[in-house]
Amino acid sequence: MNEMNNTEIKKREDNMLELKNKLEKFHLDINSENPMQIILKGNLYIEYALRERLREHLKNPEILECDKLSFSELAKLVFSLGLLPADIFKTVMEVNHIRNSYSHNLKYNFNDEEYQRLEDTFSPDFRSNYLSVLRAQKFPINTLIKLQTAIFTIWQLITNRYNMLENHKN
Q1: Distance separating alpha carbons of residues 141 and 72, to the nearest angstrom
Q2: How much is the average pLDDT of 9-37?
Q3: With 50 as the cut, is the pLDDT of residue 115 above it?
């Protein structure tokens, strides 16, 4: 078993501190007692991260006109190109499905059952990441905190996981 040197330990500690700071900023940004605000804002974070991921890997992103792609087209393209692990695709699409439910039904009400449907899309790896983040919560755990944590976990995996995989290859 390889032992980590001080530089590797420091890098991991820095990554954990960065994750903690992002989590706090994210919660401040989408902190709400209203699940609609959490979903709408969270979906915007996810969509932006997907667009950035796609742009980073295209030689001429202006040709594709990434900003004109629907969320569904964007997600399918990013995941089909292998720019992100496929294990979070269903979860990303379920968040967008919930967002669409809010957008097309004024009486839509997010509840524990809806949250359970979202959680049912979690792959084992995603669930492990999600639970790690959830355990770090300073707040009492309820459905809104779980929802915020799930969306944050998706967002941080899109923005950070691939970068870590790329850095590991190099």
Answers
A1: 30
A2: 78
A3: yes
- Residue 7 in any domain: the answer is no
Number of domains in the chain: 1
- Examine residue 127 and state whether it is found in any structural domain, yes or no: yes
Residue with tokens 């492990």: 128
Tell me the three state secondary structure of residue 79: helix
Report which DSSP code applies to 34. Answer: -
Q: What residues make up the domain containing 100?
A: 37-169
DSSP secondary structure code for residue 140 in this structure: P
Q: Does residue 44 form part of some domain?
A: yes
3-class secondary structure per residue, 93-120? HHHHHHHHHHHHCCCCCCCHHHHHHHHC
pTM of the model: 0.79
Question: Is 84 a member of any domain?
Answer: yes
Range name among 3-17, 40-54, 93-107, 108-122 with the lowest pLDDT average = 3-17
Burial class (CB in 10 A: 0-12, 13-18, 19+), 31: middle
Cα gap 164→25, rounded to integer Å: 21
Return the half-sphere exposure (C-beta side, CA atoms, 13 A cut-off) of residue 123.
13
Backbone φ and ψ for 20, nearest 5 degrees, come out as -60, -45
Specify the higher pLDDT residue, 57 or 137: 57
Q: Are 110 and 98 a contacting pair, CB within 8 Å?
A: yes
